[in-house]
Design brief:
about 0% strand; single chain
Length: about 170
């Protein structure tokens, strides 16, 4: 795999994982519906696995939204600034976001480690619960990485002397 393809793999990581999760959830729930209505009994593991995939998808979507610059914003306020002013505002915003997620990472780690220490497993599938409780930790780390990427993209706009249009968030 060349460097460009490996960069693309990292770039589309969240999308890929969310699509795989959605496909798996659809297939598993299809099996459950078929089993319940055609065979008369549904497998006990299907709802549990679907729930855990949904939890992971939800946390991965935070990182995806960060990468795509999809968030609740004060658009009218930011719109009054020129291109470099918008980028400065976004730099400050990304800095605060990064501080929040870096603050949350140790708590997510402690949350996951509590499941490791307790040895708790899921009721139907006997999956170690730390697999599920690792979702916030993985998500917050990915979000921090994506915020750093966005931060450097905005810094480039702030430093850029040319007016090329506000494409820092549109590029990705």
């Amino acid at each position: 795999m060349n460097e460009e393809n490996s960069n693309l793999a990292g770039y589309y990581l969240e999308e890929f994982l969310m699509v795989v999760s959605l496909i798996l959830m659809t297939v598993i729930m299809g099996i459950q519906v078929f089993s319940r209505y055609v065979l008369g009994s549904a497998p006990s593991w299907s709802e549990e696995i679907t729930r855990y995939l949904f939890v992971w998808s939800g946390f991965l979507s935070v990182s995806y939204c960060t990468r795509k610059c999809i968030s609740i914003k004060i658009e009218q306020f930011v719109a009054i600034f020129p291109r470099r002013g918008k980028a400065m505002f976004k730099l400050v915003n990304h800095t605060f976001e990064l501080m929040v997620f870096l603050y949350l990472i140790p708590f997510a780690f402690k949350y996951m480690m509590s499941a490791v220490e307790s040895g708790q497993v899921s009721p139907a599938c006997h999956i170690p619960m730390y697999y599920v409780q690792a979702a916030p930790l993985v998500s917050f780390i990915l979000v921090a990485i994506r915020i750093v990427q966005r931060w450097f993209a905005e810094l480039k706009v702030v430093r850029d002397k040319e007016e090329k249009g506000d494409k820092a968030c549109r590029q990705q």
